[in-house]
Write a structure and sequence with these properties.
mainly alpha; three-stranded mixed sheet; two-stranded antiparallel ribbon; rod-shaped
């Protein structure tokens, strides 16, 4: 005869008796152990624990450190940032914040959101400059071809002026007429590197190396 126990697929109806079991065992047993005893899922036990206002009195070491970190950085960091720094899931961080009763002011929320967006825009711009596709749909540049051409000219050795539209070349640079023509169509200006700057560059590159005991190596 087959004596294998079949899993109980019948849904457990939560009763006041289960509340008493949960209150009695919550601070001494793991949630999955209580769930196994009652015959429900861990998430069900967790949900009823929150409803009853139950909180762990002595969380684990990792969780204790995470709670301290969330308590300290909640006004400054987003849930995702705190999750990345603690190695926990974002929803776990959100639950810890809720258990600690933390709330952000509108000013704090706006500051975090503004900073995160600025960081994301900077990352997307870097991807565009290096010819990579964006990961988001945020519009970060008004002229994609212009931005990519500027990055390409810089990588080829052109020196970008402070205005961002003037490109300098020295006598050693192999110029690229086609790209320069495209740049002129975008309003770029191409000029030879000023004599003073060119002489300093050549002097620096041609100077012999000096060792710690002031010996020169040609």
């Amino acid at each position: 005869m087959n004596t294998t126990l079949q899993p109980n697929t019948k849904r457990t109806v939560w009763t006041p008796d289960h509340d008493e079991i949960l209150k009695e065992r919550f601070h001494t047993d793991y949630l999955h152990e209580i769930a196994s005893h009652i015959g429900c899922t861990r998430s069900t036990v967790s949900s009823h624990a929150r409803r009853l206002g139950l909180k762990k009195l002595d969380p684990s070491g990792r969780n204790r450190d995470a709670r301290s970190f969330v308590l300290m950085e909640y006004p400054n960091l987003s849930y995702q940032e705190m999750a990345e720094r603690t190695g926990m899931h974002k929803e776990s961080i959100r639950m810890i914040a809720r258990e600690l009763g933390l709330e952000r002011t509108p000013e704090q929320y706006h500051t975090i959101r503004s900073r995160r967006r600025k960081e994301l825009v900077q990352k997307e711009r870097r991807r565009i400059i290096f010819g990579l596709d964006q990961k988001t749909s945020i519009k970060v540049v008004s002229n994609l071809r212009k931005i990519r051409l500027r990055g390409s000219l810089k990588r080829l050795g052109y020196i970008i002026g402070a205005d961002g539209h003037t490109f300098y070349y020295d006598s050693t640079l192999r110029r690229h007429p086609v790209r320069e023509e495209h740049g002129k169509a975008f309003g770029f200006t191409f000029l030879p590197l000023p004599t003073t700057c060119a002489e300093e560059t050549e002097k620096y590159s041609a100077s012999p190396a000096v060792s710690a005991n002031e010996q020169t190596f040609n």
